[in-house]
From TrEMBL:
Keywords: Membrane, Signal, Transmembrane, Transmembrane helix
Transmembrane segments: 131-150
Native source organism of the sequence: Triparma columacea
The name this protein goes by in its record: DUF2470 domain-containing protein
Signal peptide: 1-19
Pfam entry (one): DUF2470
Classification via InterPro entries: DUF2470, Haem_oxidase_HugZ-like_sf
Annotated Gene3D superfamilies: PNP-oxidase-like (3.20.180.10)
SUPFAM superfamilies: FMN-binding split barrel (SSF50475)
Span of domain DUF2470: 20-93
Amino acid sequence: MLSFLLNFFIYLMASFGDASRAVKHMNEDHASSILAFAHFYAGKPHAKEAKLISATSAGFTVLIDGSTSVLIPYPPSCSVSTSKDLRKAAVHMHKEAFHGMGWGYKLRRGYYKDVAKILWGVARKRKGMKGMLGVLLGIGAAAGIGGMFFKRIKAKTKL
């Protein structure tokens, strides 16, 4: 029975494909997403750091604060059967985790700054100066409105 289970596990790993590049990329370029996964999906809102250990057909395995290993299953809406499906699942989970934690969390964790960088890059590629000006105005308005709400909430909590 043990050899059957071992062979079945090896089959599953082989059919999923090698996810080591995706794991390395996530740890190097998307550490804030992995930490958001730990906060939102693993229910560890006070975690200080999170590192992706592996990605399998079962989900992402995350090491939280260097001591706790947690398997975070993919949401039911994400169909992940091979390593090629990981990007789509990671993007979906990134958005769901940040949105689920709220706008204050996004503000504190640099979510809006990252979105601004992406929009800036898109505007530069597609529309030249007019596109950049529109993006800058949109970012400025969003930052101003976000700052006003943040100050109001902060002032209310000091009372």
